[in-house]
Each structure stands twice: as C-alpha cells, then as structure tokens.
Amino acid sequence: MLTPLHWNTLRALMDRLIPADDFPGAWEAGVGDFLERQLESDLRSQAEPLRQGLEALEAEAQAWGGASFAALEASAQDALLGRVEAGQVRASWPVDPAGFFRAMTEQVSLGYYGDPTNGANRGRMAWRMIGFGPRA
Amino acid sequence: MTAYDAIIIGAGAGGGIAAGVLAEAGKRVLLLERGPQLAAGADPRDHLRNQRFARFGLNAGPALEGNPRVVVDAQGQVFVARPNDVTYHNNAAVVGGGTRVYGAQAWRFLPQDFRMASLYGAPAGSSLADWPIQYSELEPYYERAEWEIGVAGDGAASARHWPRRTGFPLPPLPVNAQGRTLRAGAAKLGWETLPIPALINTEPYLGRRACIQCQECVGFTCPVEAKNGTHNTLIPRALATGRCALLTEAMVINIDTDGAGHVSGVSYIDREGQRHSAGAEVVICAGGAIETARLLLNSASAQHPRGLGNQHDQVGRHLQGHYYPAAIGLMSEPVYDGIGPGISTATIRFNHNNDGFIGGGMLADEFITLPVIFWTHQLPPDLPRWGMANKRFMRENYTRVMRVTGPVQEIPNPEARVTVDAAVRDRWGMPVARLSGSAHLETVRTAAFMFERAREWLTASGAVRVWGQAPGSYLSAGQHQAGTCRMGDDPRRSVVDRWGRVHGHDNLFVTDGSVHVTNGGFNPVLTIMALAFRAAEHITQTW
Questions:
Q1: Chain B: residue nearest A43 by CA?
Q2: N or C: which end of chain B has fewer CB within 10 A?
Q3: Residue B157 contacts residue B113 (beta carbons within 8 Å)
Q4: What is the ipTM score, two decimals?
C-alpha cells in the first residue's frame, strides 16, 4: 500500500507530468483516483515497483536538491525529472529510472485523457480542452 | 447425444451467415460461440479496454486470463501473449464476432485481387497464388451481403471499379471536415477518390435505426444497433426459423471423427465446464484464421494424425492480415467536426499498377480517434511525452491532426503460420495456437511505398507537417487474419476446395477468412461474408 508520503510524491510528480494551466493538472483531474483504482486491479503487480520508484525519486530529490521532491520549485522538479527520464541518476534505484518514468507518464496520461468512468478526466474536462466530443 | 443437420463453430461474420442460410433452407443448426451474447447498449465505452485500444482489457473478449497464445518473434524469442497484447492477434469473441465492434468498412476485393500470381508472378519465398474462383463468381454474393447485412455506399462510384449489378441499399456516410480536406488534396494530385462503403445504417434499414454519428464507433458496439453485423441480421434470422440453437460461452475443443475418419460432430465445453458431444451431418468451422487452424490441428486422430485437412502440411500456413502504413499530418485549420464515424473518403488508385511493386493498397481517412490513442500513437516523435509542451500540443492540435492509412495487400508466405503448442494450455486444457514467421519482404516494400503515398496526400491537402514511419518487419494477422486454410483446386497446396469444403472430407467446411488465398488491399469482411453466403448456398443445394 502507498503511504501518505508516497502519495505526496506521486501527487507532485503527476502535476509535473500534466501541469495545470487554465485547465486542471493531473491531480485535480482525478488521476490520483484513477491510479488508486488501477493499483487495485490491472496494475496490482506494479504497486511494489511504483513504491520503489517513488522512494527512489525522493532520494533523488534529496541528492540533487536537498529537499523532498514535492517541496522543490516546479523548474527544479522538471530538471530532476528530465534527468530521471534520461536515466541520469545519483541515488540508488531498485527499478530502472527511465522505465519508471515512462510507465508513470503513460499511466497518468491514460487516466487524464481516458473516459471519466475510469476515475479521472472529471466532467470530461480533458476532452473539452482538446475538442473531442460531439460537434459544438 | 442430440443430432443436428449442421454444427457451426463460431458466430462471427462467416458462421453467422452460414447459420442464417442453412436454417432458412430448413436445416437444423447448432451454432456454437465461445463468447457471450452482449446485450444491446451494454458496452461501457471504456477507452482503455476495447477492441481498438486494449491497454488493460477487451470489451468483446476473450478474457485476459485462460486464453494464452505462444508467439515466436522475428528474433526467435518465444513468449506467451495475452489477448490484449498486439502480438496475440486477437479478434472479438462474442456473438457477431468482429462484426460486433468493427469499423465496418465494406469493400469488395477487386477482380485483379483474385489473380495476383498470374498478374505479378510469385516472388521467391512467397506462396502467392491465384484464387480458384474469380470475382465474377463472387459478385452475386457480394451483392447479397450488401443488401442482407446492409451497406452504405455510392453505387456509381463503385461501379467505375467493380462490375456490379445493383447499387447499395443505403446512401454513403456523411463527409466530414477531414474528408472534404482530403478530397480537395486528392483533386490537386489528380487522384480519384470514392466514398468508403460501410456496413452502417445511414438511414433506417431492416428494422433498425440510422447511425447517430457518435465519436466512439470502431472498437465499440453501436448503442443504437446501426452498425450492421451478423448479430443483428443473419443470426436473428436463423433463430427466427426455430431451427437454429445458439449456444454461447461454449468452446469447441475437437471436431470428432468416427472409426473411418469421417467427421461426425464436435466436442465442446459449456459455460459450467461440462464436456458434451454433438453429432451432425455437416460441420462448418468459422472461428477465424487462427482459431480455425488451431481446432483442425487439435482434432488429430488415428486416421488424421497431423490434424484434419492437414495431410499436406497446409493447415495454418500462409497466415496474413494487413500492413497498415500510416502518415499523420498537422493541418493549419481544424479538421475535426465531431461527425462520426469519421471515415468517408478513400482512394484505390494505388491498389494495382504500381511500377515495381506487387499489388498495393487502399488509402483512407481515419475514424474519429480516441484521445488516449492520439496521445499514445499519434504525437510527433520529437514532442516531449510530458509536461506543459505535451499538454499544449494536445490542447492546440487534437482537432488539427489527421491520419491517412490503409491496408496493404500482403504477399503470403508459408512460414508465417499457426501451429499448436502442447506445452501451453488454455482454460479448457487444450493446446494453444503458436504464431511464428513474418511478413514477406515484398509486403514490407509495398508498405513503404504506400507510406509515401499517404504522406503525399496529406501534404497536398495542406499539412504543415507530416510524420510517421514506414512499418518494419513483423508477423501480420490481427482482426484481418486470413489464409490459414487457403482455397484451391490442388489438395497438395490448399486446404479447402472452391466451395470451402476441406479436401478429403465430404462434410467439413470452412467459412471464415482462413480460406482467403490472398487478402486484397482492403478490409476483408465483405469478402468473408460473400464467401459464406456462397458456401452455405452450395451446401443447401447439394444436400
């Protein structure tokens, strides 16, 4: 199970993967609810690697910025994530950092742009944002 | 043991039609389907679990657990695939089969498609061959499929390329913004286009409603039953005779033969796990090119040690589908107007007569694309996959991007094949299908040529940027799977005769894509339907 600390990291991470502008970022869109549901079903086998990746991301934030990932400035978070995406890490990662990042990017985006029944994309806001749906 | 006149295995395009024709001709039919009957309107329209985007599951089966296949990839690596893996080459497992959730493009094969070896010669390493029948012999049955299942199209445009006696029963699909843009681009290039024929009710037809032009068509069931398949046409007709029993969630595990090697019926397992035997005078296989081949191979007996119809090692070979080269273009203006299903416009200019290539393929516009598919498969390769840049591109360009793609006629080869793997069993304990081999290099070469034509069309239509890449080399099958029980006059080089009867058997038939010698440069379902009408009619006339 993910602890509140894991969720804190995850929330900050997903809001950099899909940040807020005048449309919601990933967390506000409900991607946390989507992931929680997925971790109890399709992604049950991925819960442990996810936990390990989030802890490694925390260690990475401490190694580069001397702070929790969630406490870093957005620009510092983005720079850190760019390095994780490229596999350039300082901390010890029990999972492949680039693979972890790729998987998180995919899961968060599938939740965000998927149908609301899956838990995110509340009120079809992602579809309204991009223009998917019946003709206006 | 109940005796039937005919047992049909698989309630998809081919099996459903055979059931209707035989039952209406007075035969007592048992129609066995491994999947369930989906209730109308029950599809949850789950964007992450459907036949088009199966990332976490399927809306029309089969279940992810208990239905594995073994796959041997191009590097010789062997692995077990689940139904939602691309390498599994799934087709829907429900009443109606693929017709329940398909995009419903309703193309006839061209007259040339039946004579590929004569027209082009068979390249080395291929098993390219002519069909034993010609277009003219199939034409009346194409017409029957168009009218009895229901096809929308432009008869005059079609008649410029296909000899045909009648028009279509329904007017063509609406032309949306992308279709108008591509028609203008084609006009600049001097390319003729034509409306895409589709098994969709553009007007009320056969007692069902017209299409509501929604945005979730391909991959999903139709909420108003305006998408025409066998589940809402020939299967209900079969049941209405009172002579057809439809048994769902019933998996056929063996085609039974008697001591003389004569086909006598089938063994199947019902939804409670009970095994049954049913006898019949005629058995018809229509489980799709992979499952039909698997069943024939799994039905080996003392008289048929290599499997039924497999005395010359032909069952399961020549597996093919369609390569789909796709180019994606960013337009300066929106080309999305929300009018579904989205497809409207195609060109068949490149199906033949391409200097230096064997055959070719049709190119068409695309169904309205689910946002998750757009994000997963259609973003420019140099766009960041995350962050504000990614979100901004999605936001600004979803409505300004369109995709041109189409099926390339494949050059069959005997090494692309289905065998069975006794080391891996399904939930019923039966050896699963093992898929191996790869598309012929001529297929890959033609796909690269067609990719360039797709680029050219988008550019002429005003694309400010075009991306995508020509496909590499891999095994092809998928929803368009075909070829594993090919039709022919020579039993040494084919599995069924010109009527779909398995060589060496007087009462065993195949009526699915397995019998296609080649698979055309078109979606194959109307050809499967036409062949099933023809085979079933032949059975009733000779029995």
A1: B56
A2: N
A3: no
A4: 0.98
